[in-house]
Amino acid sequence: MKMKKLGIVVFLVAIAVTMGSASATTINVNSGMSNTDIQNYITGATAGDTINFAPGTYTGTYLTTTKSLNFVGNGAVLVGDGSHNVLTISSTTGTNITGFVVNVNGLKNGITGQYVYNCRIENNTIRNGGDAINIYKQYGSLTINNNTINNMSTSYGDGISLVNCLNAETSTSTTVTNNVIDDTDYGIFLGGYFKGTVTGNTLTNIGATGMNITGKNAATTGNLYANITNNDITSNGIGISMENPDVVYLNLTGNTVSSGSDSLHKGYYYYRDPSIQLINDPDDNDYNNVWDPLTSNGH
Question: What's the pTM value of the predicted model, to 2 decimals?
Fold first, then answer.
């Protein structure tokens, strides 16, 4: 009897393993399909599935998902229709986007969304639009790595815009690393609450501000807890603009800035706790925790 029960258990485990391995499906799409066809596949997919794009040019693209899907580009070129964001990911956890060339083709965004968690956006090229990557309202644990972004200078365009405007507790650590951003008005924009690491990014030919770090004009509606290190910034305007109302922790070291005006600008919303002893600031000792004088030819 015991052997029979053991056999049943083993059989059930084998079934469970088989079902688990078969639960994730790869859905292949190609440039001969219409946007509606591809959207229907996305809508019908199950969380964990992969949407695999064959190489080619996909015109009139505007796709959306609220599921944890893996979008694999294989170098596919997604050309926007000029009226919509090209790829919108909202209210989703675990969505991954890799290997696309996104031609926004207008003033909309390349990749955008809200309430996005544990998402990886890697190894994409995004160009010719408003914002390349724009995640807002609330997010956490994003990885934005090794993307190439250019020509986002229309309509105050951002290369990477991360604006968490709800609360700090849900802003878990995000990494923005090794991205190459050229010809935008703002290279990297960190708004509201930001917690994470921004390192190894190269920002060139930036019109207004290389890196803008801002909250709201009250200490309770935005703060910063970040390592911002080893970024190379060339801006026609400001290099790094600090307008965050509450710096909880900042390690700002090893950054190289070439700017047309201020290498480091601290706006009038900038807040500091006078009880904290601030160290090694070459200007006026109003930086929190860690400071490294910028390598700069600016002001």
Answer: 0.84
Here the tokens at position 290 are 């860690």
Cα(59)–Cα(215) distance, integer angstroms = 37
Q: What is the residue-wise DSSP string for 232-262?
A: EEEESSEEEEEE-S-EEEEEEES-EEEESS-
Give whole-number Cα distances, 200 to 204, 210, 243, 245, in Å. 13, 14, 22, 25
- Residue 93 dihedral angles phi and psi, to the nearest 5°: -125, 130
Query: How distant, in Å, are the alpha carbons of 66, 152, 222, 271 from that of 156?
Result: 28, 8, 22, 26
- pLDDT digits (tens), the chain, 299 positions: 544 544 544 444 444 444 444 578 999 999 999 999 999 999 999 999 999 999 999 999 999 999 999 999 999 999 999 999 999 999 999 999 999 999 999 999 999 999 999 999 999 999 999 999 999 988 999 999 999 999 987 657 899 999 887 766 555 799 999 999 999 999 999 988 889 999 999 999 999 999 998 866 555 567 788 899 999 999 999 999 887 657 778 888 889 998 888 787 776 555 555 443 333 333 433 333 334 444 443 33
Block residue for tokens 């956490």 = 140
CA 189, CA 91: separation in Å to the nearest integer? 21
Cβ(38)–Cβ(29) under 8 Å?
Answer: yes
